[in-house]
Target: NAD(P)-dependent oxidoreductase
Amino acid sequence: MTILVTGSAGHLGEALMRKLRAAGRPAVGIDIKPSPFTDHVGSINDRDFIRKRMPHVQAIIHTATLHKPHVATHPHQDFIDTNISGTLVLLEEAVAAGVASFVFTSTTSTFGAALTPAPGLPAAWITEDVAPIPKNIYGVTKLSAEHLCQLFFRKRRLPVVVLRTSRFFPEPDDSIDMRSGYVTANAQANELLYRRLDIEDAVDAHLLAVERAPEIGFDRYIVSATTPFSEADLDELRRDAPAVVHRLFPEAASLYAARGWRMFPQLDRVYVNSRARSELGWEPGYDFRGVLSALGSGGEFRSALAEAVGSKGYHDTVFVDGPYPVSG
Model:
C-alpha cells in the first residue's frame, strides 16, 4: 500500500515519513517546502500537481495545514485556500483515483470556546460528543474540512477517519504568561495529564486509522495522551489541580521539586481518548506516568521520534517577543 503524506516537511508529516521509511513501507511525501522527507514540492491547491502524485496511491494521510500560530500572520483567505480548498482537491482526486483510505489530521482546537467553562464551573470533560464552538479562523476551517470529509463519505463512499489531535509540537507555548511562568519541559509534562500527545503516539494513531478506515467508513476521534483523571475529578481540577495530581501520584511533588518544576494551579479541560483506543485499537505509550518515571531515572519523557523530528517553528520570520505572534 503506497501512502501519500501531505505536509511532509512539518512535525507530523516528517514523523510519519520517518516511520514509514524505517518500516520499508511505500510512501510519498509532498509539501510546499523542500525537506529530506519531501519527495515532491508543490501545493495541495494545485490539482495537476496532486493528480500526478496519485498513481499507485492507495491511502492518503492529510496533515498539511495552516496552524493556529499563523492566525496573526496570514489573512483568513489563506486559511480557506489551504485548509478547506486544499482538502477539497485532495478528496476529489482521492475519489477519482479510487483511494481506499483517507485520514485527515484535525485538531482539538475545533472545540474552541467549549474548552473553557465559565468561572466557577468544573473543568470540561471533552469527548467526541462535545459540540465544537470554533473561536478563530483556524478552528473554523479545520471544522469545515471535517465536514467536507464527512460529505465525501456520504456522497462518494470515500472512507475517511478524522483525528482531532491535541498539541504535540515541541515549541514553547504561544502564551507569554506560560512561557514566563514555566520552562517548556515543565509545561509540556503538565500537559500530558490532559491536553498533549507524543508524536510517536500521533503517528501510530494515523497508521491505525489508515488500516481501519475502510471498515469504519467515517468517524472522528480525539487523539491525546491517556488522562489519569475521571469525571469525578473535574470540580477539584478547576479549583486545585495540584491536589488531584498529588493524590493520584504521591511521588510527583518530590520529583517536581528536584527540578524546580510546578504543576498548573488549575485545569480547564480534559481530553478523553477512550473511543480512539477502543475503536482504532490505539495504545498510546506516552503519558504522565511516563513523565514521572523519566524524572526518577533522569531520562527523557519524550519519544526518540519526537527528539529526532525536533523543533521546526511555523514562520520564516524571527519575532522579537516570542516564537510567534499571538492572536485570538
About this structure: The chain is about 40% helix and 15% strand. The longest helix spans residues 76-97. The CA atoms of residues 31 and 199 lie 19 Å apart. The first strand starts at residue 2 and ends at 6.
